[in-house]
Amino acid sequence: MTIQLITSIVLMLISIFIIIISLMMSPDSNGFSGALVGSGDLELFKSNKERGVKKFMKWAMFFMGIITMSLALVINFVAK
């Protein structure tokens, strides 16, 4: 197997995990409708932070996003 095939498979699996985790996360804001009308629910310095599973899912999404971008760059450079 080539390195390009292996990284493509890993990239596909991580993308599926990102979709699953994003579907499991509960929305905390008004979403798209809040963005259109200018909702004021953005609390950057709130006193109650995420805990437990919610915090784990947030950081898992963050790191899987970084891994996805890195693998996409590796595939791009290996293909050349």
Task: Write up what this structure looks like.
The chain is mostly helical. The protein has one domain (1-26, 49-80). It contains three helices and no strands. Helix 1 (3-24) packs antiparallel against helix 3 (52-79).
Helix content: over 70%
**SS summary, helix count:** 3
List the uncertain runs: none
Number of domains: 1
Counting DSSP E segments of at least 2 residues, the number of strands comes to 0
| Straight-line N-to-C gap | 17 Å
Question: Can you tell me the overall shape?
Answer: elongated
Largest sheet: none
Class inferred from helices and paired strands: mainly alpha
How confident overall, as mean pLDDT? 77
Gyration radius, to the nearest Å?
Answer: 17 Å
Task: Please report which band the strand proportion falls in: under 5%, 5-15%, 15-25%, 25-35%, 35-45% or over 45%.
Answer: under 5%
Strand and helix order: HHH
Membrane topology: Multi-pass membrane protein
Protein name: Protein-export membrane protein SecG
Pfam family, one: SecG
GO molecular function: protein-transporting ATPase activity
Question: Short summary of the structure?
Answer:
This protein is mainly alpha-helical. It is 71% helix and 0% strand.
